[in-house]
Amino acid sequence: MRSINDIPIHVLSPDETLTGQAEAVLSEIADLLGRLLETGEAGSIDLRSLPLSPADRDWLNAKLGRGEVEIVLEAGGRSVLTETAYAGVWKVQHCDTEERVVSEFIEVAYIPAIVRPAGADIENAYEKLQSDLKQIS
Amino acid sequence: MRSINDIPIHVLSPDETLTGQAEAVLSEIADLLGRLLETGEAGSIDLRSLPLSPADRDWLNAKLGRGEVEIVLEAGGRSVLTETAYAGVWKVQHCDTEERVVSEFIEVAYIPAIVRPAGADIENAYEKLQSDLKQIS
């Protein structure tokens, strides 16, 4: 006769457990995409603010997949913005100058705002270029 | 008495010669930046269509410098879009699937058009995500 001790058990550590949070994030992403389509308004989800287990993160990464675009921005620490397989859904990771990851977001936008230069930056570039051209000629 | 043969000469090969074309490109970039500021309209310069010498290219690259953003797009061949030190001025290089450079542009825009997903892409992503979510739950 088999005793209860013979029943194979596998204790899941919290790391291996799906909490349902990842699915909630995916559902929130769908809502934000809908809003982007309707109003043009971008939105984001702060992944660090959520109790995602490592299993949740793996699941979410697998679901989101990879798109065609990767953007690297070097401005007092590196930011990496990766398009997912869903157009308009970006994974955004900011690092400090010691390359420690300091924030992780899902951003739902045509282009993440941080990549687009401000009008004032373009004005400064225009003025600098005009003055550089005067020095050359 | 020194003869004419004593005068040191250095024959510049065409590769080493600045033709004035690079300066013309820089001036054209300034015009396009001005138009971007005034009208929001982007513009581009096809570098392959111009008789730029290697010296011209080096001079232009040195003048344009490097900005904070680099974008890599993988879509049937790699495209690399590099922000220059002048905000709104991008160097854009497209390669074919064998990694041969097939075109080189200067693009003057807030964000090069190729990076921004089309509305239809966002719609498709939204519908796909909705259907994926239904399968999960």
What is the element layout, followed by pairings?
Two copies of one chain form a homodimer.
Chain A: H1 21-39, E1 43-46, H2 54-64, E2 69-74, E3 78-83, E4 89-95, E5 101-108, H3 119-136
Helix pairs in contact in A: 1-2
Please explain how this structure is put together:
- The structure is a homodimer of 137-residue chains.
- Chain A has 137 residues and is α+β, with helices and mostly antiparallel strands.
- Chain A has a single domain, classed as Ribosomal Protein S8, Chain: A, domain 1.
- Chain A is 35% helix and 23% strand.
- Chain A has 3 helices and 5 strands.
- In chain A, strands 1-5-4-3-2 form a 5-stranded antiparallel β-sheet.
- The mean pLDDT of chain A is 92.
- At the A-B interface, helix 1, strand 2 and helix 3 of A face helix 1, strand 2 and helix 3 of B.
- Strand 2 of chain A pairs antiparallel with strand 2 of chain B, so a sheet runs across the interface.
Quick gist of this model?
Two copies of one chain form a homodimer. By secondary structure, the first copy, chain A, is an alpha+beta fold. The first copy, chain A, has helices at 21-39, 54-64, 119-136; strands at 43-46, 69-74, 78-83, 89-95, 101-108.
Relevant terms:
homodimer; 137 residues; alpha+beta; Ribosomal Protein S8, Chain: A, domain 1; 5-stranded antiparallel sheet; 5 strands; elongated
CATH class of chain A: Alpha Beta
- The overall strand count of chain A is 5
Distance between the termini of chain A: 98 Å
Radius of gyration of chain A: 22 Å
Tell me the CATH architecture of chain A.
2-Layer Sandwich
User: Unreliable segments of chain A (pLDDT under 50, ≥5 consecutive)?
Assistant: none
Portion in helices of chain A: 25-40%
Largest interface: A-B, 43 and 43 residues
Find the CATH topology of chain A: Ribosomal Protein S8, Chain: A, domain 1
Biggest pleated sheet of chain A = 5 strands, antiparallel
Strand order, sheet with most strands of chain A: 1-5-4-3-2
The tally of helices of chain A reads 3
CATH superfamily name of chain A?
HupH hydrogenase expression protein, C-terminal domain
Number of domains of chain A: 1
How do the helices and strands follow one another from N- to C-terminus of chain A?
Answer: HEHEEEEH
Query: What fraction strand of chain A?
Result: 15-25%
Instruction: Report the principal-axis shape of chain A.
Output: elongated
Which secondary-structure class do the elements of chain A indicate?
Answer: alpha+beta
